[in-house]
Structure prediction request, 366 residues.
Amino acid sequence: MSNSQATAIIDLDAIRHNFDQAKQRAPASKVMAVVKADAYGHGASKVAQALVGADAFGVARVSEAVKLRESGIGQPICLLEGVNDPEELNLASVYELQVVLHNWEQLELLATRGARRHAWVKVDTGMGRLGFSVEETPSVLQKLGHQGLLGLMTHLADAGDKRSTTTGHQIARITSLANSLDVPGSEVLSIANSGGVLALHNPPGDWVRPGLMLYGASPFDDLDPIPSLHAAMSFGAPVIAVRTIRQGESVGYGGIWTADKDSTIAVIAVGYADGYPREIAQGAPVLVNGVRYPLVGRVSMDMICVQLDDSYSKKAHSVKVGDRAILWGDDLPVEEIADKAGTIPYTLLCGVTARVNRRHRGNSRG
Ligand SMILES: *Cc1c(COP(=O)(O)O)cnc(C)c1O
Prediction:
């Protein structure tokens, strides 16, 4: 393996394991595996090819769906934000994409083009973002005509908080709406994201839409790793220098860290231009040869520094140029780093930039 640059190693077996966890938790539901944003930074084509058991895939952009089709994905692909102009509608037809309908303009677009796409009708039950109100949904269905109606979709606003009462209210709203309708297809419901799948026993709905959990990370605000999930990404970079810093000398931009004694510093070739955010606090753990060392000084564009002190491990002396440091992965949960950065795992995983090598391992099919 080229050791000279930041690399995200993606374990497809871990993703399949996590997918199976979703299936086990929602045995009565079909699974739309959400692979938007390049599968949260994991490489959407490779991930989708590995998930042969997925009943459908969900993406945010038409371009994402087109890439999946061009890499040979045959399962249904759903555009979670639907189509917003005639060109997108045309692509949806050509590539046989499911669309979500969430506003009247989209409904109009479909009507004027005479297009009959398979459509989910999105209902806003409390997210306050996309979707028709519960009250207007019956007239939407009437206008759509029930041909091609895949079902009703809603999105949970607060599934990351296990104690929130919002989730229960949202489920009640969509369920009672579905019960009040007498339109073929309207009884098919798609509700739960990862938070819903993980927090609810027997998550409601005929379809679940897990995203983050497939990649092994927790959607919950407490940022506790979930033991039954396997981290799919190991984000690492090489040590490119090991240096001695004298007592009183500083490291990095702004000199925010000063050595209180003679110290050894490893410089690692990863920075915010790779997706290791500048907001990550000093003291955040970085794993080198299995030992956690603290980040010192500011994260720069292409580099970070860690302190190799033998108070952390006797192995500190043996760290050398070329060793691979882990920024997050198996033994260093992305949740923990998200906490140090004041963010959530979603942004870290999606934020790994294009200059980082992605290497996939595990069976790509199967
Ligand atoms: C992103 C997304 C999901 C997946 O959410 P996770 O929290 O990552 O599981 C599900 N449904 C919709 C509509 C989405 O946009």
Remarks:
- The longest helix spans residues 166-180.
- The radius of gyration is 23 Å.
- The mean pLDDT is 95.
